[in-house]
Structure formats: C-alpha cells, structure tokens
Design a protein that fits this description.
binds iron/sulfur cluster; 8 helices; 7 strands; 253 residues; alpha+beta; Fumarate Reductase Iron-sulfur Protein, Chain B, domain 2; two-stranded antiparallel sheet; 13% strand; single chain; Ubiquitin-like (UB roll); binds FE2/S2 (inorganic) cluster
Length: 253
C-alpha cells in the first residue's frame, strides 16, 4: 500500500469532437493523484470523474501500457511522451510532476497524423510507409533456407536489432519542426539494409519508402536531431545517414 501523498493538478487538455471539428484546450482539476500512478492511470482517473459527472471522457490511444506497442502518443508539456527520456507515455509516472502543477496534454501534431478525436491521431500513414517496402520476401516453396544458415557479423546484427526496436510511435515526427518521418523510415530501412536477407529488395525498399513518406505529407530532414532526443527507443541518427546512403546509391543504379 502506497503512503504517498496525493497531488492536485490542473490539466489543460486538447478536446476535439471529430476530425472536422475545431478543437480547443479545456481545463480540468484533478485531486489526490498518487505519484506512484502512471500518466495513463491519471487520465483513467480523470475519465472516471468525467463519466461520473455525466461528461464525455477524454479519448486517448493506449494498448500494451508497457512501452511495446507505440500507441500512447501524447504531447505532454510540449514534449512527445513528456519529460522523461527513453520512455513512452505509458512508462511515465506522476512522480515526474509536482503537487500543484499545470500539465498541458495535446495530440501529436503533424499534417500526416490527422486528429481523429481529442488526443487520438490517425497514424495509418506509417502503415502505408511500411507496406511500401518494410518487409523481406522469403521463398516458402519448399526450398526455404534456415535463417541461421546465413552468417551475419555481430556488429551488423546488433545494429539491425537496434533499428528493429522502433515501435512506430511517431514521437520523432511530433518532435520535428518539419514533421519529418526520417528517423522512423530510417529505422525500418536500416533493420534490413544491415542484413543479407534484406538485400534482395534493398533498392526498391528505400526508394519506395522515402517516396511514400513524401506523399503522406511528412517534411524533409534538416538534421536538428530533435527526433533522436525524443525517441523512446533511442533510435540513432546514424540510421538516417545510412538511409541517405542507401537512397543515393539506389538512385544512381
Ligand atoms: S524512430 Fe523512435 S520516435 Fe520514431 S517511431 Fe520509431 S520508436 Fe517512435
Ligand atoms: S501503450 Fe503501448 S507503448 Fe504505451
């Protein structure tokens, strides 16, 4: 049983009825919030209160609540996933705030992430980028080669694994002044570019994924590095450099 003293908070939350409605910030008071609760539990508490008062709860995205799925996209006090580093919103705890704090909670902002309702945005643009090339073809006609039969050096395997930890949350886009998806696309390109299994479609992959990102309305990369700072999985800018090299050589051939 927690002995922590509850916090009193002022919440300034973006409310928007639907994709076409004009949204606005609404103010809510919430008292006796445990510092041990997660940020999403705090929002659950607010929603219980709103429902009990006959008001509409705040819509927000969540699924795993353990930093795996990437659903919990919230802009908290001007930062994607809030004040912590290398964590998602669902891993953020209220002990990161103080009693009496005012907290601004908004959806991720980008033309390619339109708001569906309140704090929920549509990130299907990321799915379409993945569909454009974020896969490998495997021969399943009876001649399948065991993946372990193809040697991969340790350094490449580690870097490919690091790139593959991208959870598609979109914080990199929300952090970028150009709303660029470069870190996301670079992670998805790199996880295959580093492996022999990824070479067959390598050229088309990078060309098609970059093209799709542009068509979705994501902006260009201007190397500010805000994406790397806000990425909950620590995806390195090194991946953007690799994607650019892949793109350049694929464009020449
Ligand atoms: S690169 Fe990082 S911030 Fe961007 S979608 Fe992947 S995990 Fe999220
Ligand atoms: S709810 Fe899945 S990462 Fe936060």
């Amino acid at each position: 049983m927690s002995t922590s003293k509850g916090m009193n908070l002022t919440l300034k939350i973006w409310r928007q009825k639907n994709a076409n409605a004009k949204g606005q910030i609404e103010t809510y008071q919430l008292s006796d919030v445990s510092p041990d609760s997660s940020f999403l539990e705090m929002l659950d508490m607010l929603n219980d209160k709103l429902i009990n008062e006959g008001n509409s709860p705040v819509a927000f995205d969540h699924d795993c609540r353990e930093g795996i799925c990437g659903a919990c996209s919230l802009h908290i006090n001007g930062e994607p996933h809030g004040p912590g580093r290398r964590i998602t919103t669902c891993q953020l705890h209220m002990r990161s705030f103080k009693d009496g704090d005012t907290i601004y909670i908004e959806p991720f902002r980008a033309k390619a992430f339109p708001v569906i309702k309140d704090l929920v945005v549509d990130r299907e643009s990321f799915d379409r980028i993945q569909h454009a090339g974020g896969y490998v073809s495997v021969n399943t006609s009876g001649n399948t080669v065991d993946a372990n039969a193809i040697p991969v050096d340790k350094e490449s395997a580690d870097k490919a694994f690091d790139a593959a930890t991208c959870i598609g949350c979109g914080a990199c886009v929300a952090a970028c002044k150009n709303a660029s998806a470069s870190l996301f696309v670079a992670a998805k390109v790199s996880q295959y570019a580093l492996l022999p299994q990824g070479q067959i479609e390598a050229k088309n992959r990078v060309l098609n994924m970059v093209k799709q990102a542009e068509e979705e309305g994501f902006g260009p990369c201007s190397n500010t590095g805000a994406c790397e700072v806000e990425c909950p999985k620590g995806i390195s800018l090194e991946n953007i450099a690799r994607m650019n090299r892949e793109f350049f050589s694929a464009s020449l051939k």
